[in-house]
């Protein structure tokens, strides 16, 4: 075999490591401004969201949620009895992931004029990236203005006896599996754990959730996890809280989990949804004085602190591990890179300007696509109090809105506003109930815009909709 072919260094204005939604958005913004941009990707263009997270998980969940909603509608529930067609659901999921082929997204990158380099990219000192292609070719890319790290995050497996040989699922296997397991154990009660428990229980698996804490969705208002746990149990899942897995063993097709109380759980597959780590190991951070595999600490323009040219955008900066927030950061970082490349002054004090990711602090929205849906933005009441705010939590039954009963018989849900009593603005909002995710943008606007409650009083919700709960919440606050 001959020596790998090496090409001469190629110069670009911007080099982006990672071609997920975040990297794609950075490339689009910089290219639209006329900057030459190269994008390096070691897997599939489109990243985690397109192939192993947002898109496949929601394709799995949508039929489950639609059936649950339909069974709550008089005249319809009798028509939707019986199991889901799992094969059809999985085929639909496969279509949404483009069968794990990225031709379309790679073509889109080409259409905006970004140059795609496939292979492993590593920083090699300031403003320089070395790429090794799958064929063994080496490329050296030099950035005139910026290198952007948008390599995302990966699932973390705990250090447990027997786990390496247990063929455990992470979020990737859970969203891409090609058959419904008879029994699925889910370790972890966060977003991935609750969504995948909902999906696979709905598709016919017998799900057992094993949660170390005292409830599900621990980063949200407590009632959110309580309502989701109640619904999972009603659907037939077993939800066990306050337990920890101490060891795992697989014997053929059966995996056995030993718990800290001495009991054992048997399953056909086990999903560990126990946290994530940045995919920054092995990308050469040490060549620019940063620890290998570390989260990247950034300012509000997403520029790595202490650097004039390195940016960390999306999951890698640990500000909000959500695709929509990563794309928001990409818009901010793209604008900042373009401004700095052109010599345009950036006003660091311009809190809501084009170059500051302010919403990452104040108004991060998230929807958990369980049954019922959980939609939250901003701070929980506990978080707000811990930060020193003087707050009042205002609660309402979602069924208090006339539209809720029309949407579904026995509509079950709850809403909370977290009010800053000193400024009389919203710091947080949580809605739990069927279709609650569609309530969230109004709350996000109110929080990001710091809309005074006296002004919100004049934002009249349409009747009869579920959004009428806004009026009930404001009435409860006014007394």
From TrEMBL:
<feature type="domain" description="Pyridine nucleotide-disulphide oxidoreductase dimerisation">
    <location>
        <begin position="364"/>
        <end position="470"/>
    </location>
</feature>
<keyword id="KW-0520">NAD</keyword>
<dbReference type="InterPro" id="IPR004099">
    <property type="entry name" value="Pyr_nucl-diS_OxRdtase_dimer"/>
</dbReference>
<dbReference type="Pfam" id="PF02852">
    <property type="entry name" value="Pyr_redox_dim"/>
</dbReference>
<dbReference type="InterPro" id="IPR050151">
    <property type="entry name" value="Class-I_Pyr_Nuc-Dis_Oxidored"/>
</dbReference>
<keyword id="KW-0285">Flavoprotein</keyword>
<comment type="similarity">
    <text>Belongs to the class-I pyridine nucleotide-disulfide oxidoreductase family.</text>
</comment>
<feature type="domain" description="FAD/NAD(P)-binding">
    <location>
        <begin position="12"/>
        <end position="324"/>
    </location>
</feature>
<keyword id="KW-0560">Oxidoreductase</keyword>
<dbReference type="InterPro" id="IPR036188">
    <property type="entry name" value="FAD/NAD-bd_sf"/>
</dbReference>
<protein>
    <submittedName>
        <fullName>NAD(P)/FAD-dependent oxidoreductase</fullName>
        <ecNumber>1.-.-.-</ecNumber>
    </submittedName>
</protein>
<keyword id="KW-0274">FAD</keyword>
<dbReference type="InterPro" id="IPR016156">
    <property type="entry name" value="FAD/NAD-linked_Rdtase_dimer_sf"/>
</dbReference>
<dbReference type="Pfam" id="PF07992">
    <property type="entry name" value="Pyr_redox_2"/>
</dbReference>
<dbReference type="InterPro" id="IPR023753">
    <property type="entry name" value="FAD/NAD-binding_dom"/>
</dbReference>
<dbReference type="InterPro" id="IPR001100">
    <property type="entry name" value="Pyr_nuc-diS_OxRdtase"/>
</dbReference>
<dbReference type="GO" id="GO:0016491">
    <property type="term" value="F:oxidoreductase activity"/>
</dbReference>
